[in-house]
C-alpha cells in the first residue's frame, strides 16, 4: 500500500482506537485492559491475511470497512 493510504488507515485506526478505549470486552489474557490501538490492526490481519501495510491499494475500502465494523461492534 502506498504511503498516503497507509497514513489514512493509521489515522482511522487512531480515531477508532480512541472511541474504543475502555469499551472492548474483558479478556483474561489482558487483565489490565485491552489495547484498542493494537486490536484493530490484528483484526485487519486476521480478516485479510496480511498487515494493512502489505496489502495493495485496491484493498483500502475493505480495510476502512473493517475498521468501521470494529468501531461499531466492539469484540
Q: Which short descriptors sum up this protein?
A:
single chain; 75 residues; mainly alpha; 3 helices; 59% helix; elongated
Please provide a brief summary of the model.
By secondary structure, the protein is mainly alpha-helical.
Explain how this protein is built.
Helices cover 59% and strands 0% of the residues. The protein contains 3 helices and no strands. The radius of gyration is 12 Å and the shape is elongated. The chain starts with a helix and ends with a helix.
Number of helices: 3
In percent terms, what proportion of residues is strand?
A: under 5%
Number of domains: 1
Mean pLDDT: 95
Q: How many β-strand runs? A: 0
Radius of gyration: 12 Å
Helix content: 55-70%
